[in-house]
Amino acid sequence: MRKYLAVARITFANVLVYRWEYLISQFRAILLLITLYFLWTQVFKTRIILFNFDREQIITYVFLATILRQFVIISATDQIAQELQSWGKFFSYLLKPIGYFSYWFTVDLVYKLTSLVSIILIIIIPTIFFQIPFVQPAGILTFLLFLLATFIAILIYFYMGILVSTTGFWTPQVWGLQFMMLLILEFSAGAYFPLDVLPATIQSVIKLTPFPYLLYYPISIFLGKLSYIESIRVILISTLWLFAVFSVTKFVWNKGLKAYEAWGG
Fold first, then answer.
1. pLDDT digit string, tens, across residues 100-130
2. In this model, does residue 4 exceed pLDDT 60?
3. Confidence of residue 25 (pLDDT cuts 50, 70, 90)
4. Residue 124, CA distances (Å) to 18, 112, 117, 128, 171 in order
5. Cα first-last separation, the chain
6. Number of Cβ within a 10 Å radius of residue 160
7. Percent of the chain's residues with pLDDT above 90
8. Is 149:60 a contact under the CB 8 Å cutoff?
9. CA nearest neighbour of 81 among 160, 173, 178, 168
10. What would the 3-class secondary structure string for 76-138 be?
11. Contact 41, 7 (CB under 8 A)
12. Distance CA 50, CA 42 (A)
């Protein structure tokens, strides 16, 4: 445990070293949030209900999606591909008394917590200034189910990130795949709007993937869009997706280790 705390301290120090890049990423998130807030505010000036959402629900969805995005989709796992191509740097991890996945989960968690704290502090300002009303969870059980669904979402995306990065075992051209995955994932996860906005056919296809379980379904639980039975069903399905993504990641990872050749360092 002590060694992972040391990893966390070092990671936090590194985040502070590159604080300008970090602040720019936070500025992008808050700018997107403000844009979506004014967009939906204008839309609901002439409507009371749209896509089975009222104004308070859609505003809560947008704000909550922004917060969860910083905690679920913001990840350090994209750095793994770079290390696999860094002339033996990855090999040094294999000699250390620390689990590689555990190491990156610790680094990932520091990135997420730092992003989460900062985005919440940033959101407080427009919330107070514009006096934005938010929907509260129906009860403590709803909130606990929401937290559980969010935790599973974090794990799913963590292993997804590693899975994409494992292509670095075979090719240095990983950035394009990571970028494409992020675009598809944010759209399909409901990072910018609830999936209810999309045509029914597209919704049906997207809901066959693990992506909606990252943001859309946890937020739907929070908003009370799902009953307790439906919420538990969503959590069970997301757990199955976690097991599936983990299994595929471990399989590809082990294949990559057999193909890995350390040059230099």
1. 777 778 878 887 777 777 777 777 776 777 6
2. no
3. low
4. 24, 18, 11, 6, 43
5. 28
6. 23
7. 29
8. no
9. 168
10. CCHHHHHHHCCCCHHHHHHCCCCCHHHHHHHHHHHHHHHHHHHHHHHHHHHHHHHCCCCCCCC
11. no
12. 12
Summarised one tens digit per residue, pLDDT across range 208-239 is 999 999 999 999 999 999 999 999 999 999 99
d(CA 143, CA 110): 23
The amino acid at 41? T
* Distance separating alpha carbons of residues 203 and 199, to the nearest angstrom: 6
Placement of tokens 């970028």 in the chain: 179
Closest CA to 111 of 179, 16, 221: 16
At 162, list the tokens. 């590693």
224 within 8 A of 138, measured Cβ to Cβ: yes
Look-up of token digits 């990932």: 108
DSSP for 4-35 reads HHHHHHHHHHHHHHTHHHHHHHHHHHHHHHHH
Burial of 49 (0-12, 13-18, 19+ CB in 10 A): exposed
pLDDT tens-digit readout, 125-177: 767 776 777 888 888 999 999 999 999 999 999 999 888 888 777 766 777 77
Quote the CA–CA distance of 3 and 255 in Å, as a whole number: 28
Characterize the bridge pairing of strands 49-50 and 53-54. antiparallel
